[in-house]
Amino acid sequence: MTDKAAKQDHVLIFDTTLRDGEQSPGASMTHDEKIEIAMMLDEMGVDIIEAGFPIASIGDFEAVRAIADQVKSAQVCGLSRAAMGDIDRCWEAIQFAVNPRIHTFIGTSPSHRGITNLDMDGMADHIHNMVTHARNLCENVQWSSMDATRTEPDFLKRTVEIAIKAGATTINIPDTVGYTAPRESADIIKMLINDVPGADEVIFATHCHNDLGMATANSLAAVEAGARQIECTINGLGERAGNTALEEVVMALKVRNDIMPYATRINTQKIMGISRRVAAVSGFAVQYNKAIVGKNAFAHESGIHQDGMLKNAETFEIMRPEDVGLTETNLVMGKHSGRAALRSKLENLGFTLQDNQLKDVFVRFKELADRKKEVYDEDLIALMSDETTSS
Ligand code: KIV
Ligand code: ZN
């Protein structure tokens, strides 16, 4: 998708699993693993891959360069602080990509200005100089006013205006510490689009962290207010409580397209495969009840739910497991399961039962389920072999 198309009813998906995601303490990936994940992201239709932070280490530089060389379709982006040396190093790593992007940033909120020792005027000049420098190297430049959601609104507008005038093509509004709430997230984007000269020439991006569990809601609110790029990671990997989860925003836009009519280019059937691979290489297991990709996201145990599912899957499922790359809904057999689910499960395992047989097996199944949390296929097969021996 072109950045222009995204201005209307498309949202660009900017994946930062390999940069912000990898910043999770303990989530580092090897060179080869990063390339493998980048190729999977490209194949699933991600628009922009943030491949790393080239100045951070030689290893990061080399991984970003290799990804830039190998990715065929997505834009490849490198991160750099707003500093000449960072920007030059970033460009060195990404320049041979099919469509390279420099992403440069500085913290604009009062506490960040304190750290960099720049007052508002000093920071404004610095932003102008750094974005101009990046733009002289690359025609695709993303500017981030880090900690935007805690930056004074007038100063935020000023930083964004300067970045646009200096040639930034994407303006990212990070909620760096996961502090904002959905209405505020929308209001900030609306304010920038309405008040900043040149705003209609650029794409606004939303980059949310999940400290209060609102990253997905905040990202979608920003889109409804006019943002057309969502920054996210697979499994919501990222610093502290993580970033917006790619699978959540993409599936929310797909399932609730009736009220959020914005498309992405993501092939959603690739979601489960990449989620499992990212969990394996990062060493960060996905929580069982994680939306979309958790082990239990398409599992049903209670009798009423299983019965409903067997009659009509829409009763308890708002999306099809196949849409995210699973083969089928998982009816988990446990003490809450009912007779209909047991019959169906046994039929799948090759056992067709008369009603009186089912009655007997059901009693023994419940006894077993009281002793075990989950009754596996092997347990049911053992139960059936006892049944055939005793009858
Ligand atoms: O959270 C953040 O502010 C960031 C920036 C570098 C964009 O990750
Ligand atoms: Zn971040």
TrEMBL record:
Residues 11-272 form the Pyruvate carboxyltransferase domain. GO terms for cellular component: cytosol. It is an enzyme of class 2 (transferase). The keyword Membrane does not apply. Mn(2+) binds at residues 20, 207, 209, 243. Keywords: Acyltransferase, Amino-acid biosynthesis, Branched-chain amino acid biosynthesis, Cytoplasm, Leucine biosynthesis, Manganese, Metal-binding, Transferase. Its cofactor is Mn(2+). It catalyses: 3-methyl-2-oxobutanoate + acetyl-CoA + H2O = (2S)-2-isopropylmalate + CoA + H(+). Coiled coil: none annotated. Transmembrane segments: none annotated. GO terms for molecular function: 2-isopropylmalate synthase activity; acetyl-CoA C-acetyltransferase activity; manganese ion binding. GO terms for biological process: L-leucine biosynthetic process. Pathway: Amino-acid biosynthesis; L-leucine biosynthesis; L-leucine from 3-methyl-2-oxobutanoate: step 1/4. Its EC number is 2.3.3.13. It comes from the Bacteria. Homodimer. Belongs to the alpha-IPM synthase/homocitrate synthase family. LeuA type 1 subfamily. Catalyzes the condensation of the acetyl group of acetyl-CoA with 3-methyl-2-oxobutanoate (2-ketoisovalerate) to form 3-carboxy-3-hydroxy-4-methylpentanoate (2-isopropylmalate). This is 2-isopropylmalate synthase. It comes from Pontivivens insulae. The chain holds residues 1 to 391 of 518 of the full protein.
